[in-house]
Amino acid sequence: MTEGAAGVAVPPGPVGLSAPSPDAQAGRMRERYVTFALAAADLLIEADAQGLITYAAGTFEARLGTDALSWIGRPVLDLVVLPDRDRITAVLRQLREHQRVLPQGVRLATADQRPMSLTGLPLPQGDGELRFCLCLASMATAPPPIKPIPDKLSFAQQAEMRLKEGAGPNSLSLFEVTGPDGLVAPRSDIVSQIGAALTEGGQDGRIAGELANGRYGLVQGTQAADLTDLAARIQSVLSKGGMQATVAAHTMSLADTGLTTVQATRALRYALAAFARGGEDSILEEGFAGGLPGFVASATSRAEAMRRILAERRFRLAFQPIVGLRDRRAHHYEALLRPIPAPGFPLEQTQDFVTFAEAVGLVEELDWAVLEAVAQAASRTRNVRIACNLSGHSMASVNFRERFMRMLESVPGLATRLMVEVTETAEINDEEAAVTMVRMLRNRKVQVCLDDFGAGSAAFRYLRLLNIDFVKLDGLYVRGALNNERDRSFISSIVELSASLGAAVVAERIETEAEAQVIRELGVQFGQGYLFGRPGALPDAARWSD
After folding, report:
1. Which of 180, 349, 440, 520 has its CA 20 to 30 A from that of 393?
2. Which among 418, 450, 445 has a CA at the least distance from the CA of 434?
3. Alpha helices in 315-379 (DSSP H)
4. Is 198 a member of any domain?
5. Counting Cβ atoms within 10 Å, is residue 413 exposed (0-12), middle (13-18) or buried (19+)?
């Protein structure tokens, strides 16, 4: 692979043909990235550190009545209505601090004040200057449906984003809705109405979300609404839908917690996971009666229990095959963590286990424990690779990298039996260190995969930065590919882009033959899902025989 002028790896030209010039290669790559970005957005903008537009593409003529070129040199603030400019200012501040911006609503400065979803990424330049990439995509005029927790661009992530902003939210309110038969699980349209009712009248960018059936969250800013009023709104929506229910409400302050931003966001993430899992009882059991600081204080003993669990390797691994879509033969296996409940530490679900590790700062120790277990399994295999998930935090850790390299040097042949899947569970904060890690792994023949591609707004950035072997496509696109032309186009584009960077594509969560067929026809080479095998033990053929 060679390095293009834009900093993106591009394959050399075919033998016997004249290769395009570096300028031509860079131009093609820029056009490709712009095309893919506009597949999910109406307006694509690059701005400088002062918030002035330096590049513009998209439907400016249709949306704003003037062409994209006329916006060069104008402030980004001019794009939105006056009441939303404070939000744009907050977005620019966040980008200057090298943080990505997850989707949030703004309104264009047009007569109809068209609602748009805004996302953004910082784009450091080689000359040390800072640029910002902003994408604006159309939203429905009506409030969009609120998403369940499995959606990677969920209420939980948006709440964390608000907490990282300079002003931040003031409070988190949690609601549990029960009826005669337990938790109430209304239709999706009623869930959307509940979200609209919770955010109605709030001019401070309130966000609401469904955390689990019958459980909802609301992040509020300076204009905190009364809990009794909010509970009554939920009851009113349910009553109009023909359902009677009782609404229990709980609130905690997010302002002046005395915690660092990292501590506060980790604690918030765990609070939402705990409430989704067990409601208010779980919140109280986890120590959140005293808010986020209360959890941090009460988690000390459980953190020590988790540290012992990791040190003693009290967990197991399950292995799921990734197969070639044409021959259905196993190409490699992904190792999946399965916690074993222990006295004083009853977490059984993998996601809860990982979330707690992140909340108390043990994710690097968790990753190392799993990596060692995977390495032991891989050392006993015959011509089989096993993929291990590593968080962005560990990928950027110098200490973790040095330990990993010593492991590879001490076990001959291990590198050719290992793969690494880079997850976005913890965002990569030190991108330069992560690039170094990937380069060192690949130099030692450890293949690297970018996990859950398409699930988060940083996916294209990581694909551009990290020289990888595989891209794992988020399962949401697999489900949508059967009936959604836009999802099919996205998948085809990712296949083409990945191929140009020398990477193959894996599609996850394939459960039916129909899904496997359409994914294969779109050019995806590998698949993973229940259709090909559930997580379990490594097959005998993959192990050394005694």
Report:
1. 349
2. 450
3. 350-359, 363-379
4. yes
5. exposed
Query: Are 210 and 160 within one domain?
Result: yes
- Determine phi and psi for 178, rounding to 5 degrees: -125, 150
At 425, list the tokens: 């569970």
Give the count of beta carbons closer than 10 Å to the beta carbon of residue 437: 26
CB atoms within 10 A of CB 107: 18
What is the spatial distance between Cα 189 and Cα 465, in angstroms, rounded to a whole number?
A: 40
The whole-angstrom separation of Cα 212 and Cα 457 is: 23
Q: In what order do the strands lie in the sheet with 115-124?
A: 53-58, 43-48, 130-138, 115-124, 101-107
C-alpha distances in Å from residue 55, one per residue of 41, 47, 75, 131, 133? 15, 7, 12, 10, 9
- How far apart, in Å, do the first and last CA atoms of the chain sit? 41
Taking a C-beta distance cutoff of 8 angstroms, is the pair 132, 120 a contact?
yes
On the question of pLDDT at 325 being above 60, the answer is yes
Residue 375 in tokens:
């390495």
Helix (H) or strand (E) holding 30: helix 22-39
Most distant CA pair in the chain: distance in Å? 76
Which residues have a Cβ under 8 Å from the Cβ of 69 and sit 6 or more positions away?
A: 56
Q: What is the mean pLDDT of residues 394-403?
A: 92
* Whether residues 380 and 522 fall in one domain: yes
Convert the pLDDT of each residue in 476-498 to its tens digit: 788 888 888 878 888 888 898 88
**pLDDT tens digits for range 185-235:** 887 778 878 888 888 765 556 788 888 888 998 888 766 678 888 999 998
Domains: count for the chain? 4
pLDDT at 33 over 80: no
What is the torsional sign of CA 43, 49, 53, 54? negative
User: Which position has the token pair 């409430």?
Assistant: 275
Query: Is residue 339 within 8 Å of residue 348, measured between CB atoms?
Result: yes
pTM: 0.60
Please return the burial class of 221, using the count of CB atoms within 10 Å of its CB with bins 0-12, 13-18 and 19+: buried
Residue 528: give the domain boundaries: 313-542
Q: Which pairing describes strands 130-138 and 171-179: parallel, antiparallel, or unpaired?
A: unpaired
Residues 201 and 71 in one domain: no
CB 387 within 8 A of CB 420: yes
CATH number at residue 70: 3.30.450.20
**Strand pairing report for 470-473 and 447-453:** parallel
Cα 323 to Cα 532: distance, rounded to the nearest angstrom: 7
Position with higher pLDDT, 434 vs 126: 434
Q: Which amino acid is at 192?
A: S
Per the CB < 8 A criterion, the answer to whether 169 and 254 are in contact is: yes
Residues 461 and 351 in one domain: yes
Last residue of a domain, one of 257, 275, 298: 298
Tokens 């260190």 correspond to what residue? 433
